[in-house]
TrEMBL record:
InterPro entries per UniProt: GerMN (IPR019606), Gmad2_Ig-like_dom (IPR018911)
Signal sequence residues: 1-20
Compositional bias of kind Low complexity: 28-52, 63-78
Compositionally biased residues, Gly residues: 53-62
Coiled-coil positions: none
Region (Disordered): 25-78
Keywords: Signal
PROSITE patterns linked to this entry: PROKAR_LIPOPROTEIN
Protein name as catalogued: Spore gernimation protein
Organism: Micromonospora thermarum
Source organism, top-level taxon: Bacteria
GerMN domain ranges (all copies): 108-192
Length: 299
């Protein structure tokens, strides 16, 4: 009996030791070659919602299937306000940012109004745009499906899909919306537009944010061996900090990542947070997402 108890205890310890967490690199020069992948399971961090449901739904399952970024959905900001996520267009793909606005019971209308209004000046300078026309509205929400009229066909099929993706990814952050139907078409969820995500999505920080050291950088990525690199540049474009981490899935699937990077500065200034993949072929930075920010001083 005692031998059996000892054997079971050893087996349990071995099982625990076999679970690997995503690793994070220390500060220092960015890697010139992609570090080995951590043994992490495919999928996204946290608890994903069902496909097409609310914040952060996932696409089809199975080997190599992409998972879609988890989003916090509308969040309570200071009293009387709400923070919503908006998906704009950049370089033929969709990319997120956020707005804090006075609270309203019709958050879907607020979100579509903000989509149609387009990006702020700093976001436009960073390449964000909108294809959603003014007057786009939800006619009703029933059984988790938001119904809209058919969107403008201006620009051809590719532009229509981008418009639809903007609307679907924005509206499905709300818990009452899992799918969106345009005109007489069938309902669509986030998984139907997952191919319009760039290889690296940055959900924080957003363009124009004031950040302090250490900067927390989050998002999703489908990159070589799941390795995501981050660096901070000062106003003169000089690299002042760098780190790397691994997403929960990579090389053919999309996973969540989270990294923290510290910097030192004597004064507040404009800066940039870059998130990228290190090319396995020549060590160059590829799939770069540059996020202009304000860097708070840190001595």
């Amino acid at each position: 009996m005692r031998r059996r108890v000892i054997a079971l205890t050893v087996a349990a310890l071995l099982a625990v030791g076999g679970c690997a967490e995503p690793r994070s690199g220390s500060l220092g020069p960015a890697p010139t070659a992609a570090p080995p992948a951590a043994a992490t399971p495919p999928g996204t961090a946290g608890t994903p919602a069902p496909s097409g449901a609310g914040p952060g739904p996932t696409g089809p399952s199975g080997p190599g299937a992409a998972t879609t970024p988890a989003t916090a959905g509308p969040t309570a900001a200071p009293t009387g306000t709400v923070t919503i996520e908006l998906w704009y267009v950049r370089d033929g793909r969709i990319a997120p940012t956020r707005r804090t606005r006075p609270a309203t019971p019709t958050t879907s209308r607020l979100a579509l109004t903000e989509l149609a209004a387009g990006p702020a000046a700093a976001e436009r300078a960073a390449g964000l745009a909108t294809l959603v026309p003014a007057g786009t509205e939800v006619t009703r929400i029933a059984d988790g499906t938001a119904v809209l009229g058919a969107l403008s066909a201006t620009g051809g099929p590719a532009a229509v899909r981008l418009r639809e993706a903007q609307v679907v990814w924005t509206l499905t952050q709300f818990p009452t919306v899992r799918r969106v139907r345009f005109g007489t078409g069938g309902p669509a969820d986030r998984g139907d537009y997952a191919d319009l995500l760039p290889p690296i999505v940055v959900t924080a920080p957003v363009i124009g944010a004031r950040v302090t050291s250490p900067v927390t950088v989050t998002g999703t990525a489908d990159v070589f061996e799941a390795t995501v690199s981050v660096r901070v540049l000062d106003a003169g474009g000089r690299e002042i900090a760098t780190t790397f981490t691994t997403a929960t899935c990579g090389t053919g699937c999309r996973g969540d990542y989270r990294a923290s990077v510290s910097y030192r500065l004597d004064r507040e200034q404009a800066g940039t947070v870059e998130v990228y993949e290190v090319s396995p072929e020549d060590g160059s930075r590829t799939k770069v997402v540059a996020v202009p920010v304000r860097l708070a001083p840190r001595r």
